Amino acid sequence: MPPYPYTPPEQFGIVEKGVYRSDMLQTSHLPFIKQLHLKTVLVLCPELPTRPALNFFDENGIKLIHLGLPTWKPTQPPSWRPVSDELVKEGLELVLNYSIHPVLVMCISGIHETGIVIGCLRHLQNWNFSSIVTEYRSYASSKARYMNEQFIELYDLDLVTLPSNLPPWFVEQQKMLVSHSSGLASCEFIGKDEKLEHLSYRFFD
């Protein structure tokens, strides 16, 4: 028996509670993946998982969602975009659908399509762009592509329709952001009010 009975995929990572990412699964990864009790696997690239992985999904009642070639590449005319807006839109709407969690998001490399979708998720979560790029490069390393980073930065989040059944972590994050924004607005208003009061004292002294 090997010293480490569970071998995670090379690009495996925890995105949020119930959301994972990886490159394509090999037979050696399956015992590790089984511990995640997945409900769904979301494949972002045109290629299908290996036959052992497909059999594993069937045996464990895991639903495979393969976005496939039609939504993978940008439509004509040719564009600099590394993937289509539709792929990212569909990917984000599925990742944010709590009813299909726990979910594993993957592509061949675990870097490019997956990195873009997770980067756009971070954008949707209001991460600053520097943090998004840092996370993207931590997986991509020397394979990082500037066009992927540019796509994440420029992606129109208004294209995404948030599902009604959002994950608790996303709901809580949005509440915190609203609360923080309200607090900043209140502080700014109070600061202006104090400044006016200070000016009035000076005027009447």
TrEMBL record:
Keywords: Cytoplasm, Hydrolase. It holds the Pfam family Y_phosphatase2. Gene3D superfamilies: Protein tyrosine phosphatase superfamily (3.90.190.10). Its main location: cytoplasm. InterPro entries: PFA-DSPs (IPR020428), Prot-tyrosine_phosphatase-like (IPR029021), Siw14-like (IPR004861). One of its GO terms (molecular function) is phosphatase activity. One of its GO terms (cellular component) is cytoplasm. It is found in: Cytoplasm. This is Protein-tyrosine phosphatase. It comes from Jimgerdemannia flammicorona.
